[in-house]
Amino acid sequence: MPGPAEDFIAMPDIPPITVSLEPAQNALNSLLLLVRAEETSGLGDWVIRTAAALTPEERKMHELVLIGFHYALVPERSWSSFPAYIDHLAACDPIALRDKMLKTYARFRPLSGEECSEMCDEPEAVDTEAMLASADAYLDFLRERFAGPHMDEKREARAYTYVIDPPAMQELIVTHLRKMWTEHLAPEWKRVEPMLQDAVRACGQVDFSDMSRLEAARLITGQAWKEKKWESILEQAGRVIFVPTAHVGPYLGKLWAGDNLWIMFGARLPAGVQFDAPDLSRAEIIVRLNALADDNRLRILKLIAERGEQRSQDIMKRLDLSQSATSRHLKQLSATGYLIERRCNGAKCYVLDPERIKDTLRAV
Question: Are residues 257 and 312 in the same domain?
């Protein structure tokens, strides 16, 4: 009797674009946002309240775990719940958990001048024993790959004391994540999960098969996605999973693991989808109105409306704002879609998007 056909067992097709709840990635992104709460306006109310409730020592510990050990924390697959993922971290081999982070660091090539380091597909050959021989050697390794806000030497020096003691590093990670989940995130997750499920179901009504990844991204997130880097990022990933969240505000978050790219976006209803979810509609309106609920941001919009396209430096001088405040406000207004950002003669320039303003008024 002839043997069976070679394709009698076939792998199921995995769609290159999906929208999913992803509890572990969702929770991790919310915890990461706590680190950025003071420097980023427009984040969800839970982020602002929770960040303000942490003591200075709790904030330092949170940054140590979420940033200092970030690449040890990123899930490599989907999980049914965040507690299930924490249990997985607790059951991992401590050295393997630590080495997962170091191998990811090795995927970043040394910096060239002031350029940002790019993550490559394969890790560079690194002498781990030499890198961990001393705190200075560890910091030198990181300095070669990260700069500016990505490299807090005090934090990384503290992280080193755990990196050379993997069981202590694992215990700290697991204990801290369980504490943050139990004391802060679990009640919030129970509150927002139904709304996030509605966002997933609404997106499930859309047929993405004839769309490019960029077209699908624009429809799902409601964002313009005009930066070239995002198109490149979308094309590099083997699979892109969009994750609705209640906390990211008008911004986008991303987590890489292998060929998978998880993109967090503010939970919303895609344009053209008929789906009864008043909480989702309200959440999107709140994000848009939040950007207008500040006198300085209204002054910026008024200035650009009256004078036309403005450079960020001109906005800063004419409104007598600090550089950090100007940057923060422009970032939120651009992410919300009220301003269109472009490069002009090496500077960032901004112009109004009148359609976005009209659309917000219609939504209200």
Answer: no
What is the C-alpha to C-alpha distance for residues 316 and 256, in angstroms, rounded to an integer?
A: 35
Q: How confident is the model over 169-226, as pLDDT tens digits?
A: 999 999 999 999 999 999 999 999 999 999 999 999 999 888 989 999 999 998 888 7
Enclosing domain of residue 236: 189-266
Q: How far apart are CA 342 and CA 351, in angstroms?
A: 9
End-to-end CA distance of the chain: 70
CA distance 169 to 176: 11
Listing DSSP states for 79-133 in one string gives -S-HHHHHHHHHHS-HHHHHHHHHHHHTTBPPP-TTPPPPBPSSPPP--HHHHTS
DSSP code of residue 3: P
Q: Are 257 and 75 in contact (CB under 8 A)?
A: yes
| Residue 150 falls inside a structural domain | yes
Same domain, 156 and 211: no
Please name every residue paired with 339 in a beta bridge, in sequence order, or none if there are none: 352
Structure tokens at 127: 């002498």
Whole-number Å distance between alpha carbons of 249 and 265 = 8
